[in-house]
Amino acid sequence: MKRIPAGVLIGLVLAGCGGPAATTHRAPSATEPSVKAAPRGTAAVERHPAPAVAPTVTVSITCDFDHTYSSYRDAWPGKFAMCDGTAIGTMDATQAKAVSVANDAAPDRLRVLGALYGVCAESGADAWSFLSLVTPDLVGVVRGALILCPDHPDRNLINKLLAVAGKHNRQEADGRIFGEGEFRVGHDIKPGSYYAEDVENCFWERTDVNRKPIADNFTERAKLVRVTIRPSDYSFISEGCGQWQPQS
């Protein structure tokens, strides 16, 4: 007898066929239709992948430590000046853009998104009083928040304050706004006329190239102090005067 290899035998068992002797033929009954194999070349049935799930973020906002909201709009009637938010889920394109404007390098982007929703929940004049003197980074945070809440009731006020902050930051970068310390004229700060407001124990000094005083002044208390820094000055020293701003 010819021996059938084990692999072929296993294949025949799994296929449900034991050889010609085990094959039984019967005609279909009147109620059983004949089954015909699909002709060669027939295209396979196309299977479509399941549709992708839309990005969804769940937000929780807490204002003044004991008021919790799921929507920033619900917080507006409270006129809160301090709110924070948390976000979980998958961001959509608008949320991703807001985070990029606020802090594109942030490693935890959902944490930034939650903070932006917290900014959106704040409202009222007291909430934005800090905006006129914010750093460029904070300007980006507020602009990112407005992408999320373009319908904010304080939007016009916020944009005006951001414009002031932008001008302030440009002048500071250009050496036209500065605080306390010693500054090289023409290098750290620009020559010109400046003023400081609401000073106490304010001392300033202009020096020459040998660091000797050209002029100085001490004011114990005043609403306004002025000084003119000349292009020929080597440095300007300020202590206790706060911030110097250019006279327009």
Give a short summary of the structure:
Helix content is 28%, strand content 25%. The chain is α+β, with helices and mostly antiparallel strands. It folds into two domains: 57-173, no CATH class; 181-246, no CATH class.
Number of domains: 2
Q: Sheet bearing the most strands, described?
A: 5 strands, antiparallel
Looking at the structure, what is the overall shape? elongated
Integer average pLDDT? 83
What structural class do the secondary elements suggest?
alpha+beta
Query: How large is the count of helical segments?
Result: 6
In angstroms, what separates the terminal alpha carbons? 113 Å
Percent of residues in beta strands: 15-25%
How many strand units?
8
Give the SSE string: HEEHEHHHHEEEEE
Which spans have pLDDT < 50 for at least 5 consecutive residues?
Answer: 1-36
Helix content: 25-40%
Radius of gyration: 37 Å
Molecular structure report:
A hairpin with a 3-residue loop joins β1 and β2 (67-69). The radius of gyration is 37 Å and the shape is elongated. The strands form two sheets. Strands 4, 5, 6, 7 and 8 form a five-stranded antiparallel beta sheet that branches. It folds into two domains: 57-173, no CATH class; 181-246, no CATH class. It is of the alpha+beta class and 248 residues long. It contains six helices and eight strands, in the order αββαβααααβββββ. The chain has helices at residues 6-14, 72-75, 93-103, 109-121, 136-148, 155-173, and strands spanning 57-63, 67-69, 83-89, 181-184, 192-207, 213-229, 235-239, 245-246. α3 runs antiparallel to α5 (136-148).
